[in-house]
Specification:
The complex is a heterodimer of chains A (336) and B (338). By secondary structure, chain A is mostly helical. Helix content of chain A is 77%, strand content 0%. With 338 residues, chain B is of the alpha/beta class. Chain B has two domains: 2-109 and 191-332, Rossmann fold (3-Layer(aba) Sandwich); 116-190, no CATH class. Residues 1-16 of chain B have low confidence and may be disordered. The chains are: A mainly alpha (336), B alpha/beta (338). Chain B: Keywords: ATP-binding, Cell membrane, Membrane, Nucleotide-binding, Transport.
Chain lengths: 336, 338
């Protein structure tokens, strides 16, 4: 029931996203008709191209055509790859998602325990370490951390393979696509060596991204845990002699999770944005790198498709955060 | 010192049978470290509580009532440091025991309920589950029976339709209901001492009476003792057997409730009574107590009430000031009692 209602509430956002991306493509500088007609074209042939592209029609009519194309899943063709934008994006999305999710998992696995321990023992060594991580993660741009890690771990120490792409395709063959995530597909294929190779390629970009995501997560975990641990109901739990583990996890952490999940959603969307840079640094064949080359080549259809896809991802992400909050907090369910 | 404590630790239960009070707080002195200096929050606080009795700890906000309770429960803030004194429960000094041993007592033998019951319960956990958490920690109730036990606990505090309320979240219940739930949690392990820290604060007046009647009934049913912390002297007079009046970290007077209300010996007790609304009295008849609690970061005179006291005389500032015994069960910390 709630899921359906939240889904319905997401529809207006999606409509807005579609309208904005459409208008955006018209606000971008440059005349697509002149671009398609080529450098040798005269005014007449540009007008001809404009007619074939439908660009001479009124804006609402063009929007109608745009919607019809969208309904068919047609985002137009990319100039640089010559492929439909939809298939380009769908083919690259798993690489980006695998990277982002890996970064998020690493960030959560480090930041949550760190924040919890820091809150349990304020001003202890763990607390200072937490503060240091937060400062470093917030202060250094991801691409800088990425380059630094490449310099140290690949160039100086040689601990990781060349940071180019998802898999060293000279020695390993990519697994048949099931989920599109190499870490999962290699295992499904029973190819442990390829799994290791894919993992060693993934580690550096994922850690670079994770370091950036850790800062807000650890800070929020610490703050939310401090609030929860100082709350009246935790005092009641302690007075009732509940075991420490119960007090910390069932009582304090569960109520702190509300704010932590919200930050997780925010961090996830940051990560999707940071991908654009990190994929460039690590030669990662994801949608971020695709978008960068599309912008450089003035490949409007591809840029538009990328923006639309990111926007849809954001909307879905917010939906997921809302649903998680609803699952955690019964009060949300009763509010409406 | 150590040998004495060891001796007290072992024959505790036997000692209890020989008229040892259930709870004795003995010369408890406690400081808080703050940026502005050390706050001498409790100074030589002492009282006793017998089995089956309700003792009221009365005083204005900041007088040290809750700090005393938190010291008993080991819920003190990290900034607090106990300088001297003992807290003996059935003759066992709680401060001398290892924390682990104290954990066993907390929640099982000594339970506590708090003010503002709606925030004192986990906001996003079903109240039935919260009661089960306590059962799991302290009793050998098999998992399959816990739900039943939790519902019985709700029934015991007179919550109508307990099976349905088991599924409720605190925000779905009234403040009075939440306080009943907290009482049910506290009593689920059958403690022999219940500390009630302003249990009716934040409840409307009719609910206050209902909750206090419930606590008194439960005391009669189970024979447990209650340490009732309140700033409401009239309520303490109605429900308590004995009353200890606190002011600025001192216990200034201890007496049976009816005696204290009728013949207060300490000027502060008398002022408190004069400041308590009585039936058929007008607002104008209420007398406010002049001045504020002294700043406990500064060195204090032997009597911490002296700056607010109309009866103050030069010899009041002569240390030491010891409690004077006026009757068999009537102690007062004053050189010139009323």
């Amino acid at each position: 029931m709630i899921v359906l209602r939240r889904l319905a509430e997401a529809v207006p956002s999606l409509v807005g996203v579609v309208i904005v991306t459409f208008l955006l493509s018209h606000a971008l500088p440059g005349d697509p008709a002149a671009y398609f007609a080529g450098p040798a074209a005269n005014a007449e042939s540009v007008a001809e191209v404009r007619r074939t592209l439908g660009l001479d029609r009124s804006l609402p009519v063009q929007f109608g055509y745009y919607l019809l194309d969208l309904a068919k899943g047609d985002l137009g063709h990319s100039l640089t790859t010559g492929q439909p934008v939809t298939s380009d994006l769908l083919q690259r999305l798993p690489a980006s998602m695998e990277l982002t999710l890996a970064a998020l998992i690493v960030a959560i696995a480090v930041a949550l325990p760190l924040g919890i321990v820091a809150a349990l023992r304020p001003n202890s060594l763990a607390d200072h370490f937490c503060r240091l991580t937060v400062t470093i993660g917030a202060a250094f741009p991801t691409f800088f951390v990425g380059l630094l890690l490449v310099y140290l771990l690949y160039f100086k120490l040689g601990l990781v393979p060349q940071p180019l792409g998802r898999l060293d395709e000279i020695y390993f063959t990519p697994p048949p696509t099931v989920t599109g995530f190499y870490l999962i597909d290699t295992l499904l294929n029973g190819d442990v060596d390829a799994f290791r190779a894919a993992l060693s390629q993934l580690i550096l970009p994922a850690v670079s991204l994770a370091l950036f995501a850790m800062a807000p997560l650890a800070r929020m975990t610490r703050a939310a845990m401090l609030t929860a641990l100082g709350s009246d109901f935790v005092r009641t739990a302690r007075a009732n002699g509940l075991p420490a583990r119960k007090v910390i996890f069932t009582y304090a952490l569960r109520s702190a999770m509300l704010s932590i999940v919200n930050v997780m959603g925010m961090v996830f969307s940051f990560l999707l944005g940071s991908n654009v840079l990190i994929e460039q640094v690590f030669g990662w064949p994801g949608i971020g790198a695709y978008a960068v080359s599309a912008v450089i080549a003035s490949d409007y259809a591809a840029v538009q498709g990328f923006v639309l896809m990111m926007a849809i991802l954001y909307v879905l992400l917010n939906l997921a955060v809302d649903l998680a909050a609803t699952a955690i907090d019964p009060r949300v369910r009763f509010e409406s | 010192m150590k040998a004495g404590l060891m001796r007290a630790t072992h024959p505790a239960e036997a000692a209890a049978a020989h008229g040892v009070p259930l709870l004795e707080v003995d010369r408890l002195t406690l400081d808080f470290a703050t940026r502005g200096g050390r706050v001498k929050a409790l100074d030589q606080v002492g009282f006793t509580l017998d089995r089956g009795q309700i003792l009221g700890l009365v005083g204005e906000s900041g007088s040290g009532k809750s700090v005393t309770a938190f010291a008993i429960m080991d819920l003190l803030d990290q900034a607090a440091r106990i300088e001297t004194g003992q807290i003996r429960f059935t003759g066992i000094d709680l401060l001398a025991r290892k924390r682990r041993a104290l954990k066993e007592l907390r929640g099982r033998e000594i339970a506590m309920i708090f003010q503002s019951p709606r925030t004192a319960l986990h906001p996003i956990r079903k109240v039935g589950h919260q009661i089960e958490d306590v059962l799991r920690a302290h009793s050998s109730v098999p998992p399959g029976l816990r739900r039943q036990k939790a519902i019985e606990a709700l029934e015991r505090v007179r919550i109508p339709d307990p099976a349905r309320r088991y599924e409720a979240y605190p925000f779905e219940l009234s403040g009075g209901m939440c306080q009943r739930v907290m009482i049910a949690m506290a009593l689920s392990a059958d403690p022999s001492l219940l500390i009630a820290d302003e249990p009716t604060t934040g409840l409307d007046v009719t609910t206050q009476a209902v909750i206090m009647d419930l606590i008194r009934d439960l005391v009669r049913e189970s024979g447990m003792s209650v340490l009732l912390i309140t700033h409401d002297l009239a309520m303490a007079g109605e429900y308590c057997d004995r009353i200890a009046v606190m002011h600025a970290g001192h216990i200034v007077e201890t007496a049976p409730a009816h005696l204290l209300l009728r013949e207060p010996a300490h000027p502060y007790s008398a002022k408190l009574i004069a400041a308590t609304p009585a039936k058929a009295a007008s607002i104008e008849a209420l007398a406010a107590i002049p001045g504020n609690l002294p700043d406990l970061r500064q060195p204090q005179p032997p009597c911490r009430f002296s700056t607010r006291c109309e009866r103050h005389r030069p010899d009041c500032d002569q240390p030491p000031l010891d409690a004077a015994r006026l009757g068999q069960d009537h102690l007062v910390l004053c050189r010139h009692p009323l």
